[in-house]
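Much of what follows relies on a compact textual record of a protein's fold. Here is one such record, which you should read through line by line:
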Amino acid sequence: MLVDSHCHLNFDELYNNLDSYLQQMKTNKVTHALCVGTRPDNLEKIINIADKYENIFASVGIHPDEKLENFTLTHEFLSQYVSHPKVIAIGETGLDYYRVDGPAEKKDMRWQHERFILHIDVAKQAKLPLIIHTRESIDDTLTIMGEHGAIEAGAVMHCFTENLANAKRVLDMGFYISISGIVTFKNAATIQEVAKYVPLDRLLVETDAPFLAPTPFRGKTNHPALVLHTAQFVADLKGISLETLAHATTNNFFTLFNKAQK
């Protein structure tokens, strides 16, 4: 039994053939998936998917890449969703400096910081864990999480691509680390080192579908069933059975996202 802890079933590549992809999940013994919010205009669709399918859960949040003109995120906007029985997390949220041009602009990321802090506040109030995106921003991400008490809510660092030193910082702060299909890529030695190191009781696996399909499906549309290949790769790295890894990561999912019902 495996869980895809992070995917985007609302994207057209998956949504237009959703029943087929859910059947493939069943074939690969991927029993549940968490469909993650990224924009204010896709949250209702995500919740509707979760309502329709018993084994799909939802999260609500605004991706840090989404600057969004004519929209101001408020506590009230996010909070309207948290009582829904299938909404089990806040996110994805965090910081992303990858597309910021030049050091001068990078210094003025207050809008991302403020939005991130708002997500943390809502998560603590709602007693829901956070799904964290960080790209070229790990120091600021962990600083904000520490200063604003993200551990009170709990959190997973999704699609982790940082080095081992930063993985240890994350673990020392009490957070989980989720490994995506990137770990199967030939040039992914850094992530492979992290996946091998992370204790079984802090590890999750994910697809980030429709992106980042694992080898041997790289370049194709990713979907939740393919988390099996990532899980097998990580199990091999750790020198354990797939069954052991699947049992641990599934238990971790339902421990962190404790509103979710098996």
